[in-house]
Amino acid sequence: MSAAPYLHIHQLEKRFGDFVALQNISLQVEEGEFVCFLGPSGCGKTTLLRIIAGLEQVQQGRISQAGKDITRLPPQQRDFGIVFQSYALFPNLTVSENIAYGLVNNKLSRQDRTVRVNDLLEQIDLPGIGDKFPGQLSGGQQQRVALARALAIQPGLLLLDEPLSALDARVRLHLRKEICELQRSLGITTIMVTHDQDEALTMADRIVVMDHGTIAQVGTPEEIYRHPATAFVARFIGSMNLLPGRVLEGHNLLIGDTELALPLMLSQNVEEGLLGFRPEMVRVLQGPEEVKADTLLLQGEVAQVNFMGAFVRLVVTIARNTDIEVDLPVQQYSQRQLKAGDHLQLAIDTESLHFYPQPPVDEPTRVSIRQSDPQPQHVFAEVMDSVMEAQA
Amino acid sequence: MSAIAACRLMPVWNTEAFVQRALLLLGVLFLILGLLAPLSTMLLKSVQDHAGNFIGLANYAEYFTNPALFGSIINSLVIACWTTVIVVTCAFITAYALTRSGMAGKKGFRLISSLPLFAPSLLPALSMIYLFGNQGILKGWLPVDSIYGPVGIVMGLCFWIFPHALMILITAMSNSDARLYEAAKALKTPGWRVFLTITLPGVRYGLVNTIFVCFTLAITDFGVAKVIGGQYNVLATDIYKQVVGQQNFQMGAVVSVILLLPAILSFWIERRVQKRQTAQVSARAVAIQPESQPLQDNLLMLFCGGIAAFLLLVIGMAMYASLISFWPYNLTLSLDNYQFDMMDGGGWDSYFNSLRMAFWVAITGTAVIFLLAYLNEKVKALPLLRKTMQFLAMLPMAVPGMVLGLSYIFFFNSPDNPLNFMYGTLAILVLNTLVHFYTVCHLTASTSLKQIDGEFESVSASLKVPFYTTFRRVTLPLCLPAVLDISVYLFVNAMTTVSAVVFLYSADTTLASVAVINMDEAGDTAPAAAMAVLLMFTALGVKSFHWLISRELLARSQRWRHA
Ligand SMILES: Nc1ncnc2c1ncn2[C@@H]1O[C@H](COP(=O)(O)OP(=O)(O)OP(=O)(O)O)[C@@H](O)[C@H]1O
Ligand SMILES: [Mg+2]
Question: Is B49 at the interface with chain A, CB within 8 A?
Answer without folding.
Answer: no
